[in-house]
Design goal:
Helices cover 24% and strands 23% of the residues. It is of the alpha/beta class and 359 residues long. Strands 5-12-6-7-8 form a 5-stranded parallel beta sheet, covered by helices on one side. The chain starts with a helix and ends with a helix.
Length: 359
C-alpha cells in the first residue's frame, strides 16, 4: 500500500505528523519540527463527501472509505451518487443479493453524457437495481432498524446508506491561506494544470488534492511531474510544462463504460459516428450484446473524443485514447486492420460512418 511504501523510506528522509503551512516557505509538523522549504509538493488526497441529509445517520452511514470494512452485507442499501464509484459499488452489492437503490440529482450513470448512451445505461442498470435519477435526497434519519430517506414526492427505508457523491480534496485546515497561493471559495489553490505549480506560491499540487482528474494513472504522472518541478524550482530553474494526456475515464461495471477526451459535447460542432453492440457479432457470441459506441470528430476529420458502454470498453477505450492523443484523422484510422470476429469491428463501423460524412 501507499503507507507501507512511505514506511520503507529511510528514517532520516521522513518526518511523521500533521503538517501545516505557517508562511510562504515554512511548515510546522505537529509541535516537534519547523522547517523552511524552497518548494513543496501538496499530495494530501481526498475524503468522501457526506451530504447534509446524511449527517445524522450514525452507524447506518457508509462511505467509499468504510464500505469495505463491513463484516456483514445489509439486506438493503441506498447509494447516493451514480458516478463511476457509486455505479460500481451499487452493481456489486446488487449481485451479492443486497436490495439496492441508487439516487442522483442528475440523469447520467457512470459519467456518460451522450443522450443515446445515457438512455442505454439507464435501461441496462435498471434491471439490476432501482434507479432514482433526477432525485435529490432531502431528508435522512436513523431508526432502530435502518435509515429513512425522503425526497420530493417519496420516501424509502433501507438498512444502510452509502455516500458515493464525490470526494473533495483535503486542502482545508493546513494553512494554505498563509502561503500566498490564490484560493477559490472552497479553499483550493489555483494551479497550472500542466506544471502543477500553484499561483502565488512555490507549491505544486498533485493527484486528488487538485480535484482535476482524480484517477490513478493521472495522479501517478502528476506525482512525477510535481517532484521533478519541485527539484527544478529548488535549484532556481523554471518549472516544466509537459503536454497533458488526453482525458480518459473508465467504469468497471458490467457492461463497462469509457469516456475519452471529455466525451459528448452538445456545444461542439462535431461529426458523430455510431455503432451499437446489441447487433454486433462478437458481442452476441459473448452473450454481452448491449450498449453502444459513439465517436466525435472535428469537421476536418480529426478524432476528438469518444464515449462507449459495452463489452471490452477498457480495451477499446485505450485504442481510442491513443488515437485522440495522437490527433489521428478518421480516414487514416479507418484504414487500420480490424480482425473478424472482434469487438473492434464495432469501432470500424463507427469510423465508417464518420468517413462517409467526411467524403
Amino acid at each position: 500500500s501507499v503507507f507501507e511504501g512511505l514506511d520503507r523510506l529511510p528514517a532520516e528522509t521522513r518526518l511523521s505528523g500533521r503538517a501545516v503551512f505557517e508562511g510562504p516557505d515554512r511548515l510546522r509538523i505537529d509541535d516537534h519540527t519547523r522547517l523552511h522549504f524552497k518548494a513543496a509538493v501538496l499530495a494530501t488526497g481526498s475524503s468522501p463527501s457526506v451530504p447534509d441529509p446524511l449527517q445524522d445517520l450514525g452507524h447506518r452511514l457508509l462511505t467509499t472509505d468504510t464500505v469495505f470494512d463491513i463484516e456483514d452485507l445489509p439486506a438493503s442499501l441506498a447509494v447516493l451518487g451514480a458516478g463511476p464509484v457509486g455505479l460500481e459499488l451499487a452493481q456489486a452489492m446488487a449481485r451479492l443479493g443486497v436490495e439496492t437503490q441508487v439516487f442522483d440529482p442528475g440523469d447520467s450513470l457512470g459519467g456518460l453524457s451522450d443522450p443515446d448512451l445515457k438512455a442505454a445505461a439507464r435501461e441496462i442498470f435498471s434491471q439490476a437495481f432501482t434507479l432514482h435519477l433526477g432525485t435529490k435526497v432531502e431528508r435522512g434519519r436513523a431508526d432502530d432498524d435502518g435509515a429513512r430517506l425522503g425526497w420530493d414526492g417519496g420516501e424509502t427505508r433501507v438498512e444502510r446508506v452509502l455516500a458515493a457523491a464525490g470526494r473533495p480534496p483535503n486542502v482545508r485546515g493546513i494553512g494554505l491561506e498563509q502561503t500566498g497561493a490564490r484560493l477559490d471559495d472552497r479553499g483550493s489553490p489555483a494551479h497550472d494544470p500542466r506544471s502543477l505549480l500553484c499561483e502565488g506560491a512555490t507549491i505544486l499540487i498533485a493527484g486528488d488534492a487538485n480535484a482535476d482528474r482524480p484517477v490513478l494513472h493521472e495522479a501517478s504522472r502528476q506525482g512525477r511531474i510535481a517532484g521533478r518541478n519541485a527539484a527544478r524550482i529548488a535549484a532556481g530553474e523554471s518549472a516544466e510544462r509537459p503536454v497533458r494526456w488526453v482525458a480518459l475515464a473508465m467504469v468497471f461495471s458490467e457492461p463497462q463504460i469509457a469516456v475519452i477526451g471529455g466525451g459528448f459535447d452538445a456545444d461542439a460542432d462535431r461529426l458523430v459516428g455510431r455503432a451499437d453492440f446489441c447487433d454486433q457479432g462478437r458481442a452476441q457470441v459473448m452473450d454481452e450484446a448491449q450498449g453502444g459506441l459513439r465517436l466525435y470528430a472535428e469537421p476536418d476529420g480529426r478524432l476528438a473524443a469518444a464515449e462507449l458502454i459495452g463489452p471490452g470498453a477498457e480495451h477499446l477505450g485505450h485504442i481510442l485514447a491513443h488515437a485522440v492523443q495522437d490527433g489521428l484523422d478518421v480516414r487514416r484510422l479507418r484504414e487500420r486492420p480490424f480482425y473478424h470476429p472482434t469487438l473492434e469491428e464495432g469501432l470500424d463501423t463507427a469510423l465508417s460512418e464518420l468517413a462517409d460524412q467526411l467524403r
